[in-house]
Amino acid sequence: MTKQYVDDLCYEVLGCAIDVHRELGPGLLESAYKYCLQYELTKKHLSWQSEIRVPLIYDNTNLDIDLRLDILVEDLIVVELKAIERILPVHMAQLLTYMKLTERPKGLILNFNCANIFREGQKTLVNEFYANLPNK
Questions:
Q1: Residue 134 neighbours by CB under 8 Å, 6+ apart
Q2: Cα 124–129–133 angle (5° rounding)?
Q3: Contacts of 122 (CB under 8 A, 6+ apart)
Q4: DSSP secondary structure of 37-90
Protein backbone atom coordinates (compact mmCIF):
# COMPACT_ATOMS: atom_id res chain seq x y z
CA MET A 1 0.00 0.00 0.00
CA THR A 2 1.27 3.45 -0.93
CA LYS A 3 0.24 7.08 -0.55
CA GLN A 4 -0.50 7.12 -4.27
CA TYR A 5 -2.88 4.17 -3.97
CA VAL A 6 -4.72 5.77 -1.03
CA ASP A 7 -4.89 9.13 -2.85
CA ASP A 8 -6.26 7.51 -6.02
CA LEU A 9 -8.88 5.65 -3.99
CA CYS A 10 -9.89 8.85 -2.22
CA TYR A 11 -10.24 10.56 -5.60
CA GLU A 12 -12.58 7.77 -6.76
CA VAL A 13 -14.74 8.13 -3.64
CA LEU A 14 -14.93 11.88 -4.16
CA GLY A 15 -15.95 11.29 -7.78
CA CYS A 16 -18.81 9.09 -6.58
CA ALA A 17 -19.91 11.81 -4.17
CA ILE A 18 -19.83 14.40 -6.94
CA ASP A 19 -22.03 12.14 -9.09
CA VAL A 20 -24.56 11.80 -6.25
CA HIS A 21 -24.55 15.53 -5.56
CA ARG A 22 -24.88 16.36 -9.26
CA GLU A 23 -27.95 14.11 -9.48
CA LEU A 24 -29.68 15.00 -6.20
CA GLY A 25 -28.41 18.46 -5.25
CA PRO A 26 -28.65 19.78 -1.69
CA GLY A 27 -31.66 19.54 0.59
CA LEU A 28 -32.09 15.87 1.47
CA LEU A 29 -31.35 14.00 4.66
CA GLU A 30 -27.92 12.50 5.19
CA SER A 31 -29.36 8.98 4.93
CA ALA A 32 -30.52 9.56 1.33
CA TYR A 33 -27.03 10.62 0.27
CA LYS A 34 -25.53 7.67 2.15
CA TYR A 35 -27.56 5.09 0.26
CA CYS A 36 -26.90 6.77 -3.08
CA LEU A 37 -23.16 7.01 -2.37
CA GLN A 38 -23.08 3.33 -1.45
CA TYR A 39 -24.81 2.56 -4.75
CA GLU A 40 -22.18 4.58 -6.66
CA LEU A 41 -19.33 2.88 -4.80
CA THR A 42 -20.78 -0.50 -5.72
CA LYS A 43 -21.08 0.56 -9.37
CA LYS A 44 -17.34 1.37 -9.31
CA HIS A 45 -16.63 -2.09 -7.81
CA LEU A 46 -15.31 -0.56 -4.60
CA SER A 47 -15.87 -2.51 -1.42
CA TRP A 48 -17.47 -0.65 1.46
CA GLN A 49 -18.92 -1.22 4.89
CA SER A 50 -21.50 0.95 6.57
CA GLU A 51 -22.09 1.89 10.22
CA ILE A 52 -18.80 0.39 11.37
CA ARG A 53 -18.40 0.29 15.13
CA VAL A 54 -15.40 2.27 16.29
CA PRO A 55 -13.63 0.64 19.23
CA LEU A 56 -12.92 2.82 22.24
CA ILE A 57 -10.27 1.56 24.62
CA TYR A 58 -9.86 3.67 27.72
CA ASP A 59 -7.56 2.77 30.61
CA ASN A 60 -6.86 -0.61 28.94
CA THR A 61 -10.59 -1.36 28.91
CA ASN A 62 -12.66 -1.79 25.76
CA LEU A 63 -15.73 0.33 26.48
CA ASP A 64 -19.04 -0.58 24.89
CA ILE A 65 -19.82 2.83 23.42
CA ASP A 66 -21.87 3.01 20.26
CA LEU A 67 -19.46 5.03 18.11
CA ARG A 68 -20.04 4.35 14.43
CA LEU A 69 -18.41 5.73 11.33
CA ASP A 70 -20.62 6.19 8.29
CA ILE A 71 -18.74 4.35 5.55
CA LEU A 72 -15.37 2.59 5.30
CA VAL A 73 -14.19 2.19 1.70
CA GLU A 74 -11.79 -0.60 0.72
CA ASP A 75 -10.95 -0.95 4.43
CA LEU A 76 -8.86 2.25 4.07
CA ILE A 77 -10.86 5.46 3.69
CA VAL A 78 -13.12 6.65 6.49
CA VAL A 79 -16.05 8.60 5.05
CA GLU A 80 -18.24 10.79 7.25
CA LEU A 81 -21.35 12.15 5.60
CA LYS A 82 -23.10 15.37 6.48
CA ALA A 83 -26.08 17.36 5.25
CA ILE A 84 -25.46 20.53 7.25
CA GLU A 85 -24.96 24.24 6.73
CA ARG A 86 -21.16 23.99 6.84
CA ILE A 87 -18.35 21.75 8.01
CA LEU A 88 -17.11 22.80 11.45
CA PRO A 89 -13.84 22.05 13.26
CA VAL A 90 -15.70 19.57 15.49
CA HIS A 91 -16.56 17.51 12.40
CA MET A 92 -12.90 17.38 11.40
CA ALA A 93 -11.95 16.39 14.97
CA GLN A 94 -14.54 13.61 14.85
CA LEU A 95 -13.11 12.26 11.59
CA LEU A 96 -9.52 12.44 12.84
CA THR A 97 -10.53 10.56 15.98
CA TYR A 98 -12.28 7.83 13.99
CA MET A 99 -9.21 7.53 11.76
CA LYS A 100 -6.95 7.21 14.80
CA LEU A 101 -9.14 4.71 16.64
CA THR A 102 -9.53 2.52 13.53
CA GLU A 103 -5.91 3.05 12.40
CA ARG A 104 -6.90 4.22 8.91
CA PRO A 105 -4.67 6.62 6.93
CA LYS A 106 -7.15 8.92 5.22
CA GLY A 107 -10.63 10.28 5.71
CA LEU A 108 -13.23 12.34 3.89
CA ILE A 109 -15.99 14.54 5.22
CA LEU A 110 -18.65 14.95 2.55
CA ASN A 111 -21.26 17.64 3.13
CA PHE A 112 -24.04 17.36 0.58
CA ASN A 113 -25.84 20.53 1.69
CA CYS A 114 -23.82 22.89 -0.51
CA ALA A 115 -23.74 24.30 -4.02
CA ASN A 116 -20.50 22.56 -5.08
CA ILE A 117 -19.32 19.51 -3.16
CA PHE A 118 -15.81 19.64 -4.66
CA ARG A 119 -15.14 23.27 -3.68
CA GLU A 120 -16.98 23.68 -0.40
CA GLY A 121 -18.53 20.36 0.59
CA GLN A 122 -15.54 18.17 1.29
CA LYS A 123 -12.52 18.01 3.54
CA THR A 124 -9.80 15.42 3.13
CA LEU A 125 -7.70 14.56 6.17
CA VAL A 126 -4.64 12.38 6.70
CA ASN A 127 -2.79 11.28 9.81
CA GLU A 128 0.39 9.55 10.99
CA PHE A 129 -0.67 6.26 9.38
CA TYR A 130 -0.70 8.04 6.02
CA ALA A 131 2.60 9.78 6.75
CA ASN A 132 4.25 6.41 7.31
CA LEU A 133 3.19 4.98 3.94
CA PRO A 134 5.67 4.87 1.07
CA ASN A 135 5.05 7.40 -1.70
CA LYS A 136 4.93 4.92 -4.60
A1: 2, 3
A2: 100
A3: 14, 17, 108, 109, 110, 111
A4: HHHHHHHTT--EEEEEEPPEEETTEEE----EEEEEETTTEEEEEE-SSS--HH
- Amino acid residing at 24: L
Domain ranges of the chain: 3-131
Residue pLDDT tens, the chain, 136 long: 999 999 999 999 999 999 999 999 999 999 999 999 999 999 999 999 999 888 888 898 888 888 899 999 999 999 999 999 999 999 999 999 999 999 999 999 999 999 999 889 999 999 999 999 999 8
